Amino acid sequence: MNAKAGVIAKGLVLPLLLVAAWTALTSRHESLLFPSPQKSVDAIVDLWRSRTLQGYLATSLRRYVLGLSIGTALGFATGTLVGSSRIAERFLLPNVHMFRQVPLVGWIPLLIVWFGLGDLSRVVLIAMASLFPILLNTHAGFRQIPRGYLEVGEVFGLSGWEKVRRISLPAALPWIRTGSLLSLSFGWTILVASELLTQSNGGLTDILDTGRERFRMELVNAGIVVLGLLGFAFNLAATKIWSIGSLCWRSQNIHPSNETG
Amino acid sequence: MRRFAWTILAPFSVQFAVLLAWYLLARFELFPPTLLIPPQLVWQTIVDLWNSGDLQTHMGWSLRRVALGYGIGAGAGIGLGAALGSSRRLEIWFGPTLDIFKQVPVFAWAPMMIVFFGIEEASKLAFVAVACFYPVLLNTTQGVKSVQAKLFEVGEVFGLSPRQRFLRIVVPSALPAVLTGLRQSIALAWMAVVSAELLGAESGIGFYMTYSRQLFQMDGVLAGVLLVGAVGIATNALFGAAERWLVPWIGEVA
After folding, report:
1. ipTM of the complex
2. Quick check: B107 and A196 CB within 8 A?
3. Which fold has domain B38-246?
């Protein structure tokens, strides 16, 4: 335990040193490009006090949660389908792989034409982003189930659906977990992309845009910190949620495929 | 023959159905032509673009940006990854810092790059480099770290020089992981270039799409999506082939 604490402490030296050096340098002479870290902290506090940050956060979260839920649900359903049916796998999976190689942001102009510059475009894009990781991992999870498990199901005379529910799903759960975590983080990345491509949209990236347009670097830095922290927090929360309950018996030491979109 | 039917015809039939649905929807104008135009017109647009040379120009710009940005980002990722993977000490001191920066969604760096490097080429290249840095870094670190100790012992027995040890043991052991990283990164690089061009550019395929959208030229938008997608699919196939060629002992993972 002590050794572990030592390792963590060593790892924190460089970041603290960077912040300290930055603070020291900017206290002497401040430049427009490198404002002091204190200014970014102040900027975040100001945004919070004026309730601007809360507004941004609510807007971004609404888009994120909506897109993520739709994409994850669709991806999970499709993954279950291609995972449990060979026919569906043959027809759909190669197309899924092909479709996945189309860069997501390439759809943006089309989405804008079809769904306008509003939230609908963003939600669709985030849904598309979170669709693939969960889909492919669910499929992989179903495909790694030892044949013996299903044979036991046969012996017990389970119906097709019962086999999926009582054998396949629990056996595939660690993969589904990985997929959903990947969907979560890729969805967040694409949320940022979807917001940046249309300015003053009321979401968190407005902090970045305002900073860039008015040349206020402290806002740009603050925005990066906020987006990074939130992404980290979501990931942590989701990992915790997944580790509660039924997965304790194996989730920690299994790392199935880690492909994103 | 049965195999052929399953592996080729089954997925192809879905593509054909989609294309047919697209054609019929456009043909009977179930959607207004401002939203959907028939596939043959989009194809005609692509052919026209090619004949006028615009396709080559825009694609050339985009690909050039990918090549340069990817070269910088992936190069840095391989270098740093090799260092972190081979030295536990370096990993302890520098790893967490890199982890912290990794938390930032890549697109959030774009505005900063624009402030630092201007709206022209430099900021695009920097953004692409940042976007493809992490997958290469993480995979290279992992790959170099996972070289088995017993292989080094064998090397010792054979009296290999450090150089030989690197070329004959480290490189072949780490290569599969590095290639995985490179493949993940090229997809990100392409996405980063397209988004940088959508954000603001005067050339490139992303610019062409935005331009067409602003003029309500649906054929241009759809042609752009197809072209961007085709490049994505082609690069992935290319990198997949490279993997099969360079590390034939590893089964390709999808």
Report:
1. 0.88
2. yes
3. MetI-like fold (1.10.3720)
